[in-house]
Amino acid sequence: MAFHYVARGLIRDADHILLVRAIGDTMTFLPGGHIEFGESASVALARELSEEASIDAKVGTFVGAAENEWFLDGQLQAEINLIFDVETDLTHQKPVVSNEAHLEFFWVPCGLIDQWNLFPESLRSLIRSNQLPEHTFWGSGIKLKSG
User: Fold this and answer.
1) What are phi and psi of 140, to 5 degrees?
2) Which of 13, 25, 113, 125 could form a disulfide with 92 if both were Cys (CB 3.0 to 4.6 A apart)?
């Protein structure tokens, strides 16, 4: 089993949200990436946004967390995504250019998030509302195991 500890950002402009995916993949994600050992989640998110797309971000309020699991090459993968509200000067009317050849960034209307195969899936309801929750968000894609 592999475990991933990840920081992701809600980067919104009007009724749009910024998503990212590996080129050729069908799954999309909120921008962000792995938290390194000894690094705080907010620092990791700012670093990842800068590295991946030269995004100058002000990492704001902790919104919540989403856990997820999947199989990759027969091995169980699990992750915890820490989600933060992020302020930038980006606008959905201008594309975000990736610094990494394997990634592409794009804006989508929040109301159409279900069409974009966002993972973890539990984030879709959060994005669809285009509002920060009143209380800390918790989402899970982990299947309940008996026993």
Assistant:
1) -140, 135
2) 13
Cα–Cα distances (Å) from 73 to 1, 57, 124, in that order, read 11, 34, 26
> Identity (one letter) of the amino acid at 50?
S
Sequence-distant (6+) residues with CB within 8 A of 130 are: 12, 15, 17, 110, 111
Tell me the CA distances in angstroms from 13 to 32, 34, 53, 58, one per residue in order.
17, 24, 17, 14
- Please give the domain boundaries of the chain with CATH numbers for all domains: 2-90+97-140 (3.90.79.10)
Neighbour tally for 17: CB within 10 Å: 26
What does the block give as tokens for 16? 């749009």
* Calpha distance 83→101 (Å, rounded): 25
How far does the chain reach from its first CA to its final CA, in angstroms? 19
pLDDT averaged over every residue in the chain = 94
Cβ-contact 32, 63 below 8 angstroms = no
